[in-house]
User: Fold D-lactate dehydrogenase (cytochrome) from Sphaerotilus microaerophilus.
Amino acid sequence: MNAPHPISWQPALSLRPLPPAMLEALRQRFGERCSSARAVCDQHGRDESPYDVTPPEAVIFCESSADVADAVKLADQYAVPVIPFGVGSSLEGHLLAVQGGICLDVSRMNRVLSVNAEDLTVTVQPGVTREQVNAEIRDQGLFFPIDPGANASIGGMCGTRASGTNAVRYGTMRENVLALEVVTASGELIRTGTRAKKSSAGYDLTRLFVGSEGTLGVMTEITLKLYPLPEAVSAAICHFPSEAAAVQTTIALIQLGVPIARCELLDANAVTGVNLQSKLGLRETPMLLMEFHGSPASVQEQAETVQEIARDHGGEDFQWATTPEERSRLWAARHKAYFSAMHLNPGCRTITTDTCVPISRLADCVVAAKQEATDAGLPHYLVGHVGDGNFHIAYLIDPSSAEQHERAEELNRRVVQRAIACGGTCTGEHGVGLHKMGFLLEEAGEGAVAMMRSIKRALDPKNILNPGKIFSINPP
Amino acid sequence: MNAPHPISWQPALSLRPLPPAMLEALRQRFGERCSSARAVCDQHGRDESPYDVTPPEAVIFCESSADVADAVKLADQYAVPVIPFGVGSSLEGHLLAVQGGICLDVSRMNRVLSVNAEDLTVTVQPGVTREQVNAEIRDQGLFFPIDPGANASIGGMCGTRASGTNAVRYGTMRENVLALEVVTASGELIRTGTRAKKSSAGYDLTRLFVGSEGTLGVMTEITLKLYPLPEAVSAAICHFPSEAAAVQTTIALIQLGVPIARCELLDANAVTGVNLQSKLGLRETPMLLMEFHGSPASVQEQAETVQEIARDHGGEDFQWATTPEERSRLWAARHKAYFSAMHLNPGCRTITTDTCVPISRLADCVVAAKQEATDAGLPHYLVGHVGDGNFHIAYLIDPSSAEQHERAEELNRRVVQRAIACGGTCTGEHGVGLHKMGFLLEEAGEGAVAMMRSIKRALDPKNILNPGKIFSINPP
Assistant:
């Protein structure tokens, strides 16, 4: 995915070399599970962002909480950076070793430790993926709803406070992580939260770690909320004359309190991409892809309400997917929109926005973003978790063109500034990483970022935990 | 409520005297809105906990964010404690000036600043009460669901991460606060969060402040999520042969995913108390008080499911309240259970537990708590937000009896230890305050509490923000 290309998307580096004594100690402790092979390091110095590969100096394949704790203790001793790595699907440069150091690959920590079906909770290791957890609980009539496009690791999803298509009904990782085991910067194991559904017991450390992008600790166990599989599920697509009409339909549904489970917008370009790859033969107009969960009667009732509202906004040609197979095919196509769109412009790269705005401002923001991209003459497509006010416009650019890159970043900047101006956020679900550090400062203000910096300094005084991400540790 | 009584429930004090120069500066800045009158200070040195009055040295009646910022700047300059005060309804000694200092009464900061009906958000000052916010938004077809028993201030509810009867469906303050304006320990104003429904932009400062009990900053503006008033609402009571049967019914409902809005348990003693005060003439057996929200058809469907499950567990004598007046009467009675129970033993005081456990363990925990109280011969009643796994057993004790006090505390201890042992929490919604500092340490462990302490030191280096609450700043 990140093959070398003519122009440099190399992030600013400030390398802290790995002392030979530390590498030796890691080899002693981890044997073959410590690798400094170039290929292994390169593989761990990238994610799905457009940045150049920025490898760590060694990769440790951790198999237990004790492995993580021991590796972090050595990193603490030698004041060397540590970056946790799940499946590498993050989008904003989170995993790049911009200060060097070691990568902790937790993909072998992939056990579902306990399912408490009667309490609707599950405890997993961080390398378990979202598809794996669902596969392991399905026969108990349960599911875990958070579904970023990639088959991400649960640890990574905690790190970026991920969400996806089901968040409109079930919330994000913020609402669905109950408890954590975390290795602190000094290599100590602590626990945050409990399996109780709510608690007022002290500072909400769980929520502090969720979304901290590996900068405050390394998660080694994660307890999640589960949900009973709905008795009835029905999915539908509906075509609209414009993106605005589709979004207005969504706004009306949310304001009425319809408990819709998924409500996704695809613009005509995204539909074209999906058709090219998935051969669904969809009409290439703006489209809502929706899903309803509940009892059969309630699903029926939601469907009727939605059809009525959609028709008022020019929605037509409802198609229903009622069998699991039909539904899976539709949702797989939606999840692959990112890769599908690559087919529109083979060889391209994408730069993707991730703003989330108060729902009443969504139609304006979507329409303006589309118009600006069209005016700028950049190929693009737009998909949106519109029930949440979150959308992604992806600019497809020629990786060899510095000018296209700059043009896409300028469009991204306008989308973000518009979102911030109307009370929204620069990132709904992808996180800050390297790419949005400037935007975070604009959004949160220097005072709030200074507070984040104080917390980081207090919990990680040597700045070893995924340093250089979210904000710079020294005020500008 | 907290009239003097023969035995001392005086918390440990470590007073930091107010320098005369600071008092003078406060008087200069605030004029008559700075009071050091004994009666005013006493009124602000208490809450609904059984502790003795522990007054601050002065009370500032703040009317704006700038007032709060200026008062905190002076407190910072003189390293003097600051305690924010809403309506004084907290239950665990949160408001007691155990290290002296000044109280910031924010009850005059009681404006609803903006209602964004189309985005389902509202921004309020911290002194607005939950009843006030609901009164001001009702005509727009909206409501704010979080309802601790008292008519608490929104600022106080944020401080303790409050919940109440609707949390089973709508979540707690953790899920329903979108953004804050906060005065930091140095008197700076910062903003956390946005009006977007979700965000991955940096550390979740909003969630860090919610539940921090005034120890990390003073909230001056709060943005809340709102909900459309449900199209149909129906409330019901159902009588059960035992608490266990009522709880088993609840467990089955939750496990089935029935979207019940409220599900409250009252034991027979609580029903007796409610009857004494509210003359409802209820059968004095364990009882569930439930409410269903949704479309008329979905409410009907939920009601049928619940009746079926309840009957399987011996539930009988369903009574439905369908008019708003009937419903309000029932819920007012429930909310007044605390005061009603006082009628059972006039002159008594209550010590109330607040554990929350994984739902599958709830029946065992409720039954054991009841049995222990009965065995100990202490009058008591039990109410529970059982849909969340949260219950309160209140021991009614003679305030002049040190022995009864000790017996009640011992029972509380057993309830908490049982909750922690089964993966639950010592406090579901009341907070830690002074009373549960030891329990927090048992529940979270020294490592997690040390992390809270590090955060506190980083954000409040002079330990001026409600010091001496949640944990002691120096490790034991």
Notes: Confidence is low (pLDDT under 50) at residues 1-6 of chain A. The two ends of chain A are 33 Å apart (CA to CA). Chain A has 16 helices and 18 strands.
